[in-house]
Amino acid sequence: MRLQRTNPGSAVRPIAVLLMFCVFAVAQKPPTVGTPDAGIVGGFEAKVKQYVDFRDRTVGRQQKATDNPGQILSNQREMANKLRVARAGAKQGEIFSPEVTQYFKKQIAASLAGSHGAQIRSSLKHAEPVKMELQVNQGYPASQPLQSTPPTLLLNLPELPDGLEYRLMNRELVLRDTQVNLVVDYVPNALPESMP
Amino acid sequence: MTLFRKNVLSALAYLLTMIAATHGQANRIDVMLPLHQGSVRFAVISDSGTGDKEQYEVAKEMEAYRAAVKYDFVIMLGDNIYGGHGADDFLRKFELPYKSLLDADVKFYASLGNHDDPNIERLYKPFNMNGERYYTFKKGDTQFFALDSNYMDAKQLTWLEQNLRSSNARWKICFFHHPLYNDGKSHGPDLDLRNQLSPLLKSYGVNVVFSGHEHAYERIKPQDGIYYFVQGDSGKLVRHDFHRRDVTETSFDKDRTFLLIEINGDELFYQAVSRSGETVDFGKLTRQ
User: Are strands A164-169 and A172-177 parallel, antiparallel or unpaired?
Assistant: First the structure.
């Protein structure tokens, strides 16, 4: 006898899907247009786009897949060096300006104080500590684990274009260029010292 | 890489393979899978890429079982390459230990762990990630979703939601590094990841989830109709890792393991095998 295909939880599916979208909607709600926060986020996104355009002009787009990991690594290093030279004067705070930093800290604090705060803190506690001194234009050492970034936290931050990501490194929030493995900028003490 | 360095590495790898072979010869192959004609068969490894003797010994056992089970692909649950990510690391921690499997055209499908370098591994052809951090592929009537649990952003969640919704596969299997349920001491479950992923997995009928990260083997009691396996000990191991049994159905933390899976119709058969060839868990699950 052929079993009838069943969908687990089919009776509750519409409700579950609706709830799921509600959660996403709340988490990802962008600042209302015309508010100071919307202006700050808009400014941040413009600076990020500027960086990506500059990066693409300087080192080109993503590499192609290959059987040779040595080739991937050396291409990545070559691109990183080129970009490092081109951005030699880059400093912390160029993208995360004081008002953007304040906005990010506010969003992170709101996430930690929100309904998923306990789970975010639990996820953060499980992360393996990273031992490195942060500097703009610095590479992320391969020997260090990447600290996973709690998804609910990510959903409360402005979305990034491909090739850039947020990474928590201990208490700092780093804007990392994944294509060339460089620290683009960072928010110092983004996580509160004692979490609520 | 200099010729001298390559030769030294090859000699070291040969030595490890020989030790593993000697170790493996004493073991009995004890297949607990029914081996139905036309079934989907694969192996599961995680936290494997140490380059240590133990990884080679597990790999040797995997090869012995491949000859009997004839699985043709392996899913990797992350921490595929620990430490450096140069050519010699890939050689020592992947290409040489699994050489016999690669030579037999066994395909590896990797997902990313916290010790992996996403930008190098996703571009490394033998990991079959096609340049992506997350991707999907189908084998028979089973669809696999390889996720990047290090960075579960809105884009990835949307991608997963769309791909799960459009999938008409009989079995939907997700695999990623950080476990949603786990009774291990060293890491435990990622609760925030669970918050975001569980509603999707439940709503779109995911049947099985494989994760690593915790360096032991654990089969979880079904949660919301989903079967969960934690298999994070194909290279690394934390002994005596389990301190409670809230969600654990069974666990093993005395040696490294790999997992064999066979899917036939509405049934999934599993067999966890230790480095010494001992079957530490096996059974059958029915699609819920």
Answer: antiparallel
Show the domain range for A47.
Answer: 36-187
Mean pLDDT, rounded, of chain B: 92
pTM (two decimals) = 0.88
Q: What is the pLDDT of residues A36-62, one digit of tens each?
A: 788 999 999 999 999 999 999 999 877
CB-CB neighbors (< 8 A) of B188 in chain A: 122, 126
Size of interface A-B (CB pairs under 8 A): 141
What total number of domains does chain A contain?
1
Distance from CA of B20 to the nearest CA of A (A): 26
Residue B87 is part of which domain span? 3-286
- Residues whose CB falls within 8 Å of the CB of residue B221, separated by 6 or more in sequence, listed in order: B247, B248, B249
Torsion of CA A123, A124, A129, A131, to 10 degrees: 140
Closest to A20 (Cβ–Cβ): which among B120, B203, B288? B203
What ipTM was estimated for this complex?
0.82
**A137-190 per-position pLDDT tens digit:** 998 877 778 888 899 999 999 999 989 999 988 889 999 999 899 999 999 999
Instruction: Provide the edge-to-edge strand list for the sheet that holds B73-76.
Output: B107-110, B73-76, B40-45, B257-264, B267-274, B279-286
B209 contact A CB<8A: no
CATH of the domain at B106: 3.60.21.10
Residue A176 lies in a domain: yes
Q: Residue A26 falls within a domain, yes or no?
A: no
B192:A17 CB<8 A = no
B24 confidence band (pLDDT: 50, 70, 90): very low
Residue A141's closest chain B neighbor by CA?
B84
Q: Is residue A97 part of a domain?
A: yes
Structure tokens at B89: 């690391």
In the structure, what pLDDT confidence band is assigned to residue A109 with cuts at 50, 70 and 90? very high
Closest A-chain CA to B95: A67
Residues A76 and A181 sit within 8 Å (Cβ to Cβ): yes
Flag whether A96 is in a domain.
yes
Q: Do A142 and B226 lie within an 8 Å CB cutoff?
A: no
CA distance B154 to chain A (A): 6
Q: How much is the pLDDT for A34?
A: 65
